[in-house]
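Protein modeling request. Please complete all fields; requests missing the sequence field cannot be processed.
Requester role: graduate student
Desired output: 3D structure, token encoding
Chains: 1
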Amino acid sequence: MRILYLAHRIPYPPDKGDKIRSFHEIKHFSRRHEIQVLAFGDDGRDAEYSEALGKYCQTVTVIPLHPRYQRVRALASMLVGNPWTIGYFSSPQMESAVRKALSSTHFDVIFVFSSSMAPYVAGVDDIPKILDFVDSDACKWLQYAQFKPAPASWLYSYEGKKLGRFEKEMVEAFDVSTFVSSREARYLSGGNSKPKIRFVQNGIDIEYFSVPRAQQPANTIIFTGAMDYFPNIDAVSFFARDVLPIVRRAFPDAQFLIVGSRPAGAVQRLSALPGVQVTGAVPDVRPFLAKSKVAVVPIRISQGIQNKMLEALAAGLPVVTTPAAAEGLKLTSNLPVAIAEDAATFADRVIEFMRRPATASQIAACRHNLKQDYDWDTNLSTFDTLLEVSISKAGTDPGAARILRPAVSPPVNQH
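Delivered output (415 residues):
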């Protein structure tokens, strides 16, 4: 079948949470279907990635997104009582590209990645539509409001409430809405079971992250992630300032390695603390995982599943994390994951893992468990069923010609 795939940023390279999921979706769909991708690019290099992504797609169109101009649109959206997110991702060029695609190709399904892109096709009612929210942005902003002082907290609270109404409208506008975990699905369904709302778990490339461990890894504790992202900044700040000093009482040579692109100033300043190293962007995270003893995910603001946790486990590392970050993870006895909330307990769990490194058999058992629960093809096969069901309910045959209405951006609830 022919799929129009919309994404709020180009799904390549797959080096951060949302891009990892969207890339694997496209890779999975490409085995059986023809895909045309329309995506925003907010980096000057994004257009260069079209060729690499094009191996899996019939066409890839990248629409430039200029942050300076989009912030003005975001403000204009707020002035009329709408979420700023909708304004930020509004683009006449994208709207034109969507209209052109719908008028020139008979698509069987429209697949939208991220609610930010939903308005471009929410008004199309004669083609089955699937919206992969991944997680609820409304929940994220409401969590931000709890961690930020005023007036930032007021702004985030506003966005969370407005976006929450919008997300519920989009659930009704699309044939099926999917989330990365049951937590987000429960939130948007109000705790009730709704056939239009499903969850599709992420996966992990076990073989890619199964790198040889260092024979005698140093007493290194690692955190990986995009370091301009507030939940990650908050997480490493908490660990470096409150947890690491306790760990270093037991292991004076313990080092905290912060690996990730675009470290914010608050992250860079952490390198002045004893035992903290900030790498910035690295070409390959695996060598850093291989030489570490413990991975930490001290994230207090969390949605969905933390890919960094799955990657560390696949690399043979035990993980210490928070209840919030672990909620989306399917925990079993074979996964070396410890959950802690306060600094003292967090430090105790890290110290325990550093004193008792995982054996080869324990690492093998962990990887086997991950393979069972987090295989990309197995998890994404849910979408295969959803695609077929959507086509069936629409009463059409894949590839059949029909008249298409152009995309229409729906009004957002302004109450």
